[in-house]
Write a structure and sequence with these properties.
Blueprint (H helix, E strand, L loop, with lengths): L12 H4 L2 H19 L37 E3 L14 H5 L5 E7 L11 E9 L8 H5 L5 E3 L14 E2 L1 H8 L14
Antiparallel strand pairs: 1-4, 2-3, 3-5
Length: about 190
């Protein structure tokens, strides 16, 4: 096996102190500063900015119109057309969740229930929104298409207890999905 020695290129004194890179960075920064002062900054019109820069004045102005369709926000549970729970307590979302933010307690459905389509449903379903990292893995792994990441980005609370969404709150956020929802097909 041959050993090849590679010689490092000789740097000029300006290259040794990174003078060129520092100068380029300062030029870009000054260009953006001057553009924002004269009101011609990139994205100012689309973001309804205040006129100086592209800073959005939150909460008076919101991102709702500018959210991309692939945005992942608050996770929520959905029901079907007859207001039945889609979740069958398979607990795949609980097992796949990286920060362990989901806790499910399965419960049985009595056989004489008119909506008994499966053997079990969640007795308790909690998502700790402080721990949730909005990765979307729970949505991808759900075989019943019961959990979705909504385009809601404002999740607030005054205590840790308020930030744990229980089953009722998750269904309130999620709402109803009608018909077969093909999440992974082109037929969306």
């Amino acid at each position: 096996m041959a050993i090849i020695k590679v010689q490092r290129p000789k740097l000029s004194p300006g290259e040794k102190i990174y003078f060129g890179a520092i100068f380029k960075g300062m030029v870009i920064t000054l260009r953006h500063a001057f553009r924002s002062l004269i009101g011609k900054s990139t994205g100012a019109k689309e973001l309804n900015s205040s006129g100086v820069g592209i800073t959005m004045q939150y909460p008076e102005q919101k991102w709702d119109d500018q959210l991309p369709e692939y945005y992942r926000g608050t996770p929520a549970l959905v029901t079907d057309e007859q207001d039945r729970e889609r979740c069958v307590s398979c607990q795949l979302c609980e097992f796949i969740c990286p920060p362990k933010a989901i806790k499910i307690t399965p419960g049985e459905i009595p056989s004489n229930d008119e909506w008994a389509k499966v053997e079990k449903r969640p007795q308790a379903f909690d998502i700790d929104m402080i721990r949730c990292i909005y990765c979307g893995m729970c949505e991808e792994v759900c075989p019943e298409q019961a959990i979705y990441l909504r385009p809601d980005y404002v999740v607030t609370g005054t205590s840790r207890k308020e930030m744990v969404h229980d089953k009722d709150r998750l269904y309130e956020i999620g709402g109803k999905r009608v018909g077969l929802v093909n999440k992974w097909n082109d037929l969306k």
